[in-house]
Specification:
The chain is α/β, with parallel strands linked by helices and 143 residues long. 43% of the residues lie in helices and 13% in strands. The protein is built from 5 helices and 4 strands, in the order E-H-E-H-H-E-H-E-H. Strand 3, helix 4 and strand 4 (101-102) form a beta-alpha-beta unit. The longest helix is centred in the C-terminal third of the chain and has 23 residues, at 116-138.
Length: 143
């Protein structure tokens, strides 16, 4: 299975979600390809507050560089998890199959430019989303 998390710049939400899902699947002993991309990504590092928020839970984003979502990556994905309804609409307009696209209920607001506390809240929201998706795709795990 291949899961791609998608946001706008691939410097905040999607790399955080990618790292959280990798950790969650590792904890569950599940093998899958997990990556992230952005609709307007240009090779930037993860946002400083994203790096800090993830370090607080033992995950490292220091090597992350944003990358654009390509047609090839979208086609290879079994699941594309987007952060907003607008992202979903843009993927649909680009011809991505609707059944591949998931938007978490209520979406995930962009923390870009916000405080560390906003990034922490985003991280915690993404953690809940990642656990629910992993339960859905791979079965619930006790504990």
């Amino acid at each position: 299975m291949t899961v791609v998390f998608v946001c706008t710049g691939n410097t905040c939400r999607s790399p955080m979600a990618e790292a959280l899902m990798r950790a969650e699947l590792s904890r569950r002993g599940v093998a899958a390809v997990v990556t992230s991309a952005g609709l307007s990504a240009t090779g930037e590092p993860a946002a400083d507050h994203a790096v800090t928020a993830m370090e607080e839970c033992g995950l490292n984003l220091t090597r992350h560089r944003s990358r654009p979502l390509t047609k090839e990556l979208a086609n290879a994905a079994d699941h594309l998890v987007v952060m907003t309804e607008n992202h979903r609409a843009l993927l649909l307009a680009a011809g991505v199959a609707e059944e591949k696209i998931t938007v978490p209920a209520g979406g995930v607001p962009d923390p870009f430019g916000g405080s560390l506390e906003i990034y922490r809240r985003t991280r915690d929201t993404l953690q809940d989303i990642v656990r629910a998706l992993a339960d859905d795709w791979f079965g619930e795990v006790a504990g």
